[in-house]
Amino acid sequence: MTRVILGYDNGSSAVKIIAINGEKIEATKCIIGSDRFAGELILEFLKENNISAASVETVAATGVGAEKCRFDGFDGRVVFVPEIEATGLGGSWISKLDEAIIVSIGTGTSLALARNGSFTHIGGTGVGSGTLRGISKKMFGTTDLRELFELAEQGNRLTVDITIGDLFSGTDTLPLDLTASNLAKASDDATRADWAMALVNTIMEVAGSHAALACNGYNVKNVVITGGISQTRIAKVVYDGFTKLYKLNYVIPEYSGCATAIGAAKRVQNGT
To answer: 247 near 74, Cβ under 8 Å?
Structure first.
């Protein structure tokens, strides 16, 4: 029987579950806003992916309050992994980068330094996808981030943000579309889609700017962006721009949305 390790990331806004077999990620799932027990969610995940519960060697659990979750049906097979280690290892492993700042954009945003196989929490901010949900509920009447991103992709943030181009006629060092002040222009012509785009961009710029400062402080050249919203088209555009601006290597690897769950499973798999 093939043996798998499950990673279970109990986030404030969403649960991420992954199955890993050796070096292969067999399946992933993100569950938003569920109040069901962890054991139920895992059994459903296994059924959806034709994985036998008996084949689960270990459930590697991490995240906020993971120790309080009910893993009915998996007694004796649950191991708890510190979230910062899971985030650091997961981001490092999926990016194949041994030295990097790992940025986890969850409900808030945390930063971990990955270096020589060790992972250290170096800071964070309360601005994250939870911020998006809260403001989106007030401005657009939805907490569904998929709806928000669909709206944002139709927008133009330049009617909402003040850019370098608004302040200077030309510069040799800074791109004209670089944000000088988020949400500060607030043109009367700005549409709902423009505001959605500017809001999403603000959250991503905050995370990216914190990472750039961390790179400077720790003499690191790589930034790995993880978390659910990292898998969007907007994230790629924003962080491609950051790579050019800061001359750093911003990376959004495959499976970036489940990096912490993957890291928990890899830590158990590695026996560390």
So the answer is: no
